[in-house]
């Protein structure tokens, strides 16, 4: 069993150690007997998604996000084709914003996005950092993480998280957060989100196995301390919810 991961801009879009999302996914897959190839692409590259099963981008500064958007027109059709072909896509942090139709920066300049969705993002002068507890739309266990954004995202009708009991959603306190459509997943949660949320990771693995037509084992692997760390974080954050 072989699988290819395309990691976009690990040198510049990994603000909160989000390369670990790829590392933990790869580790789990290899435990399951999958041979994983990771292809890293920098801003100087034109990414090739022709054999990509999983495409990932993490968070960066607002300036580095704009570097991504400058490059976006050169490979938008390839990314759209990969998503339509069933590749699993996960963008986290402010990489999420690039999947939409546009990002309007704090000076009013409009930057076209990858247009995998119709939502739009507008940067504001208010930064909202903080911990998050979210209610997923696709799995049962609450999700935990950290968010640090200065933007509002409008027009999402299929959020990844139905509501936040702690934290700021796409455009409102405690509101819906993230985006999901088919095999495309996005969230402002960082930290990294797959390391902190084993159920999210398991869901991604199930989607990848379904894409490849592989039979899932009865139980997915649980690596040391993953569940324990999640339970501790969830318990501590839920204690702060009033």
H and E order? EHEEHHEHEEEEEEEHHH
Structural class computed from helices and strand pairing: alpha/beta
| Helix content percent band | 25-40%
Low-confidence stretches: none
Strand order of the largest sheet: 2-1-3-4-11-10
First-to-last CA distance: 47 Å
Mean pLDDT: 95
Give me the CATH superfamily. Class I glutamine amidotransferase (GATase) domain
| Radius of gyration over C-alpha positions, nearest whole angstrom | 17 Å
CATH class: Alpha Beta
The number of distinct β-strands equals 11
Q: Kindly identify the CATH topology.
A: Rossmann fold
Shape: globular
CATH architecture: 3-Layer(aba) Sandwich
Q: How many structural domains? A: 1
Indicate the proportion of strand residues: 25-35%
Report what the structure shows:
- The structure is a single chain.
- The chain has 242 residues and is α/β, with parallel strands linked by helices.
- The chain is 28% helix and 29% strand.
- The protein has helices at 19-31, 62-71, 76-84, 95-98, 193-196, 198-212, 226-238, and strands at 2-8, 35-41, 54-57, 88-92, 102-104, 110-112, 120-136, 143-154, 161-166, 179-181, 184-187.
- The strands form 2 sheets. Strands 2-1-3-4-11-10 form a 6-stranded mixed sheet, with helices on one face.
Would you kindly provide a brief summary of this structure?
The chain is α/β, with parallel strands linked by helices. Helices cover 28% and strands 29% of the residues.
Question: Topology, pairings included?
Answer:
Layout: E1 2-8, H1 19-31, E2 35-41, E3 54-57, H2 62-71, H3 76-84, E4 88-92, H4 95-98, E5 102-104, E6 110-112, E7 120-136, E8 143-154, E9 161-166, E10 179-181, E11 184-187, H5 193-196, H6 198-212, H7 226-238
Parallel strand pairs: 1-2, 1-3, 3-4, 4-11, 5-7
Antiparallel strand pairs: 5-6, 7-8, 7-9, 10-11
